[in-house]
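Handoff note, outgoing to incoming analyst
You'll be picking up this chain. Sequence as last confirmed:
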Amino acid sequence: MLAISVLLLVAALVAGTMAVLNGRQSVDVEIEASMDFAEGYIQELVRRIAAEHGLADLDSIVSHEVAHLRHARVYVQDADSPPRLLRVSKHSAEPSPLNDTPDWFERLMMPAGGNDHSRIIPVPNGKRVVILKGDPDDEIAEKWNEFSGLAVVAVISIFVLVAVFYFVLGWILNPLAALARGLVALEAGERSQRLDIPRVEDVADISRKFNSLAASLDQTRAENGELYRQIQSVQEDERREVARELHDEAGPCLFGITVSAESVKTLTKNLPSAEGQKINKRIDEILSVTDRLKLMNRALLKRLHPVSIGKVPLTALIKDLIYDFERRHPEVEIVSKFGSFVRVYGEKVDLTVYRSAQEALTNAIRHGQATSITVELDEEVRHDTSTADESGLLISLRVSDDGVGLKPGVRAGFGLSAMRERVLSADGSLVIEALKPRGTAVSVKIPARPNEPKRPFVSEPTRITS
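Most recent structure output, in case you need it:
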């Protein structure tokens, strides 16, 4: 619209310039023609007056005869006296026609020589002359009336054209804007996105192809989601099984080693001090290694499958995850902002949010080299109720950092791809955006489908220990 408006204004300026140039030439030609006619007429009139009446009545006769002349002023000058204006025209008693004409337009249209353009006609006695001067005022006033009328028409025409272009382009481009929004929605994982078919046939064809593509993507995404849900279920089962083995087998074994070492340490009290000290030193080393193995075992259990998932509030899970990251990366500041949650969502939703937060924090520290991370978790009212989600709520997770940000052209790694598939398999959406001046934000929204009835939490622990 700006380009069209500029083009119309430039065209109007060019047309106005041409109108001024043509008008100035027309005024010049008109004045020259009027002066030629007036000069011939007055010369003949002066000769006739001199032959028939004598020169005594020259002033009155000339004043009467030149009343019909346009664009001319007639003066009579005697020897050694200033010129006397006889009569300008029959409109000489009226106000000047330039009273309503702007000065700038008068200067533009004034012909060469202006009002000083004059011709001298000698009287036969040689003591008197008749001076004829051009008078372009009424011609310039006429041109101004024409020019101002054309300018009003041009301004109205420009506004009408701009308005027409605005509605026509809007009629054509609004469907394209809707198409752009639809593509963004598809990229974010909103599989139900469809476009209304516009009346513009070319754009309507694009909209139909978009809807067809969206339907195909919906079907493909559904198939991939079902496949990923199966893979995810198998993966989580394997993790749960490994975690159970570590808990049931490695835990008791480490406990047995600790008890046996403590027992041996007790028996060394009956040995000589020198030998007892050597054995106690070895026992302390065994106990130290055992404690480290216990810590490693707890950390592996939490990474593989936190025991508390689906059993404690979601905020407590995320707080415990943040605590682990703060303990392992004390140089990174992690700020948490949690809303109020009034229900339990079950293991699937909790696990999806937990894994998403875990992957986002890992990427922010490992790849983003962030020094400050903000984790926001809250419930949102769901505006799109087209899916079978009776709760009408979304679990919203946002992890933003001040790291190096996203590099152009970098493809998502395995971790982000897995997180996207996990979120989409839960009918959620994932958006990764670059922040200004630096940093990255990961936003996850998952439909809340509680597996248990509503119930308020009595208390919420700040962290979880195994």
